[in-house]
Amino acid sequence: MREWLINRLQIPRLAVLNRKIPKKAFFTQADLSTSEKEMFTSQIEGIYLLSVMNQQSTNIPIYQDDEFNYAEVVWIFVELRSDKHINRIIGAVHKSIPNPVVLIMSSVDGKILLSTSHKKLNKNDKAKVVLDKPIHTDWFNPKNEDTAYIKLMNTMVISKLSFKNFYSIYEDIHHWIRCEELIQLVGTMPTNIDNRKKAITILNNVQKFRKEVEQLQQNQKGQHDFGAKMDLHMKIRIKEQEIHSQLQQIKELC
């Protein structure tokens, strides 16, 4: 799978390492809890440094400002024995490496998920970073070309990404991974950057409306007055119609 992904994503050969990393290296690199160390030992079969894309291997400029210091992008491949505690494992891997990481998790049945997490400089200690909440895709078979996930794999091909600097290329990957949620919602995703930007904006609105619907439903459950219940019901219907309209707009962008 690792070699196949390297070829499928067209990772530059000068940036390819594809070597195994001892699990203990993560224990010393990051401040992992006892339970996180246990997860690495019991749930992970192997961890591989798939690629280090730096200025020497890719000729991409580094990026540095008051918030970010991106001099390279690291690709990590993790073979799992089990997908238990997957969110905790994703978080532990991201916080173990100070550089921006494109994380690929592989399940025992040949599926993968992709994850990213931006890392900002710690304002009190520039030698440390603050981890954004990681995002990740659902599990999918990257070799199955009969699903919308072929669009995701095509957009992730390295030569199609932004080469302005390391922040822009990582941000590009991050947004394409975010688009996977659109596949779950409408069965497809956009393949150009302009439509991607519009679709993500609409996706944010959909998520906002869904939270509002959940809150209205909670309020409705605790309401005993029939008139108030009907009023809340109508508000829920209006929000649901708006969600449907927003999803139709996303489909048109795909």
* Number of DSSP strand runs: 10
**What are the segments in which pLDDT stays under 50 over at least 5 consecutive residues?**
none
N- and C-termini, Cα separation: 29 Å
Shape: globular
Order of the strands making up the biggest sheet: 1-2-5-6-7-10
Summarize model confidence as the mean pLDDT.
Answer: 91
> Measured on Cα atoms, how large is the radius of gyration?
21 Å
- What structural class do you assign from the helix and strand content? alpha+beta
Strand residue content:
15-25%
Helix and strand string, N-terminal first?
A: HEHHEHEEEHEEEEEHHHHH
Structure description:
The structure is a single chain. With 254 residues, the protein is an alpha+beta fold. 48% of the residues lie in helices and 21% in strands. It is built from ten helices and ten strands. The strands form three sheets. A six-stranded mixed sheet has the order 1-2-5-6-7-10, with helices on both faces. Strands 3-4 form a two-stranded antiparallel sheet. Helix 9 packs antiparallel against helix 10. It is globular. The two termini are 29 Å apart.
Give a brief rundown of this model.
The chain has 254 residues and is α+β, with helices and mostly antiparallel strands. It has helices at 2-8, 23-29, 34-43, 55-58, 86-96, 149-155, 166-178, 180-186, 193-221, 226-253, and strands at residues 16-21, 44-54, 63-64, 69-70, 72-80, 101-106, 112-116, 119-122, 125-131, 135-136. The longest helix has 29 residues, at 193-221.
